[in-house]
Every structure is written in structure tokens, then in C-alpha cells.
Automatic annotation (TrEMBL):
InterPro entries: ConA-like_dom_sf (IPR013320), DUF1349 (IPR009784), UCP022704 (IPR015987)
Domain of life: Bacteria
A matching Pfam family: DUF1349
Coiled-coil ranges per UniProt: none
The protein, known as: DUF1349 domain-containing protein
Length: 197
């Protein structure tokens, strides 16, 4: 796709932030206060107030996205979301937790889980890839857009279409500035699980 995806008119905001702008292949947002996505597990509450700009896909796809942000307060987060509805979604990216920016993902099918891992690269500039096909979700993260190690492999609810796009939340504050760019939606890559390209 040669046309900048953020210029397309089929993107739908969920909880549109007060401050955002799109130019070329870049989307810049500043998070509102007390924004989050979470369902029930451990904390018991439901939050569906995070910022998400979703673009429709077919039943199988690969999405890639570059994310730049200054994550420094508890639960500051930004990345990629794949969503069917309020009860079925995944978010993946960097989230500030335990005093550092961590690689994290939350998969929700009625209730949320949360998986985190140390990220050994520059957390202020990273890339994500999500591939959904045949009821399986594959998440990959990259520091340079060339090497794509596996982040997570999981079952994911089947649907005729999904919404996918950039996501950002700040449960404890407002004011996280995030720049999203290099967003691509393609047919699923179909690469071997251990193909890091």
C-alpha cells in the first residue's frame, strides 16, 4: 500500500484523544487522563477508555507499526491493538511497570491476561507486528524493523473482520506523547514460526 494509511477515511476512533494530528504516514497523539483497556482479572474492574484508532481488516492479516514515546510513569503504554469488540481484543507494546519500560501484551477473551518481559533495546522507538490467521495470533517486536523475534503466540477468536491500529493509554496520568508511523496492513506473511525476518 503506497497511500499513507492514516489518511484513509475508514479509521474509527475509540475514545478519541483531545489532542491528535495525522500527517503523511504519521499519527501523533497525547493521552488523556485515566485511560486504559482491561477486563476483570486480578483487579476486578473493567476499563475500555484507552485511545485506539482501528482500521478494518479481513479475517486474516499482518499489521506492522512503529511506535515512539517517552514511557516514564506507571502503566504508561502504547502499541498495537487488534479488536473484535469490548470483550475480545489484544493490545501489545511497551508498558512502564516495575520501574522500567517493559515489553507487554494483554489478551482478552472475556477476561484479560497480562504478559510482560524485559526489553533490551531502546523502548522509546520500537516496532510491532501482529499476524492473525486461522484462530491464531502471532505477535513480534523489533528494534530495527529487520529482525522480528517472537513476542507471543496464542489462540485468538475467529472473526470475519477485525479492527487493528495504534493504541495508547495512561491509567495514572495524562500527557504521554506518542508518534505512530510506518503502519502497514497486508495479507498474512505466512512465514515459518522461527523465521525472524
Amino acid at each position: 500500500m503506497n497511500n499513507p494509511i492514516f489518511a484513509r477515511r475508514d479509521g474509527v476512533w475509540l475514545n478519541e484523544p483531545e489532542q491528535w494530528s495525522a500527517q503523511g504516514d504519521s499519527l501523533q497523539i497525547v493521552t488523556d487522563s485515566a485511560t486504559d483497556f482491561w477486563r476483570e482479572t486480578h483487579y476486578g474492574f473493567v476499563r475500555d477508555s484507552g485511545h485506539f484508532l482501528g482500521f478494518p481488516t479481513t479475517e486474516a492479516f499482518t499489521a506492522e507499526l512503529r511506535v515512539q514515546g517517552d514511557f516514564r510513569e506507571l502503566y504508561d503504554q502504547a502499541g498495537l491493538m487488534v479488536r473484535i469488540d469490548a470483550r475480545r481484543w489484544v493490545k501489545a507494546g511497551i508498558e512502564f511497570s516495575d520501574g522500567r519500560a517493559m515489553l507487554g501484551s494483554v489478551l482478552t477473551d472475556g477476561r484479560s491476561d497480562w504478559a510482560t518481559a524485559h526489553y533490551g533495546h531502546d523502548a522509546s522507538d520500537f516496532r510491532l507486528r501482529a499476524t492473525v490467521a486461522n484462530g491464531v495470533l502471532r505477535l513480534q517486536a523489533s528494534a530495527d524493523g529487520k529482525l522480528w523475534p517472537l513476542m507471543r503466540l496464542a489462540s485468538f477468536p475467529k472473526a470475519n473482520s477485525y479492527l487493528v491500529g495504534p493504541m495508547a493509554c495512561t491509567p495514572e496520568r495524562a500527557g504521554l506523547k506518542v508518534i505512530f508511523s510506518a503502519f502497514r496492513l497486508t495479507p498474512p506473511l505466512g512465514k515459518d514460526l522461527h523465521d525472524l525476518g
